[in-house]
Amino acid sequence: METSPNLHGIELLSFSLSPEPSTGSKERQASYEFNVQQEQKTNVDKQMVIVFTTVTLIQSGNTLPLASATVACGFGIPMFEETLTRQTNGEYLIPADIGQAVSRAATGITRGILYSQLRGSYLQDCILPLLPGE
User: Fold this and answer.
1) CA separation (Å) from 86 to 24, 38, 58, 93, 130?
2) DSSP 8-state assignment for residue 21
3) pLDDT of residue 122
4) Is residue 93 pLDDT above 90, yes or no?
5) Where are the alpha helices (DSSP H) in 1-95?
6) CA torsion sign, 128 to 18 to 51 to 115?
7) Cβ 72 vs Cβ 7: under 8 Å
8) Residue from 22, 26, 126 nearest 69 by CA
9) Contact at 8 Å (CB) between 69 and 80?
């Protein structure tokens, strides 16, 4: 039986882009940092795992975000009840292999959406690098 997750849907939940900060000297190239956070939730009625990925882009040495995006990716889980373990509190435990697979896929999808959203802006050359485990 096939238990691989399949992509069910993608939604850009939020996106923000701050105005270009003044850098002072144009000779010094700014460097940027990405902060990536993920949360996985289950939807029993739709037999899905939903991965919420938030990427925040900041200029190195600063704390104010220059850009931020949150993307939700829904993955259908065949044989949901047999694949995920229901805990005593009623929540479902996502097996590590499925959790890693949907996490990798959601990160790649978010990378593409962020690239598309930043196109034409002062941050268009900022591309989320490959992360460990991808």
Assistant:
1) 56, 21, 39, 6, 33
2) P
3) 93
4) yes
5) 80-83
6) negative
7) no
8) 126
9) no
Q: What is the pLDDT of residues 74-92, one digit of tens each?
A: 999 999 989 999 999 989 9
- According to DSSP, residue 128 is labeled P
Distance CA 104, CA 98 (A): 10
Q: Are 14 and 69 in contact (CB under 8 A)?
A: yes
CA distance readout (Å), 91 to 18, 27, 41, 43, 84 = 38, 54, 9, 10, 10
- Residue 49: per-residue pLDDT: 97
Query: At 27, is the pLDDT very low, low, confident or very high (cuts 50, 70, 90)?
Result: very low
Distance between CA atoms of residues 109 and 102, nearest Å: 10
* Interval 19-40 mean pLDDT: 79
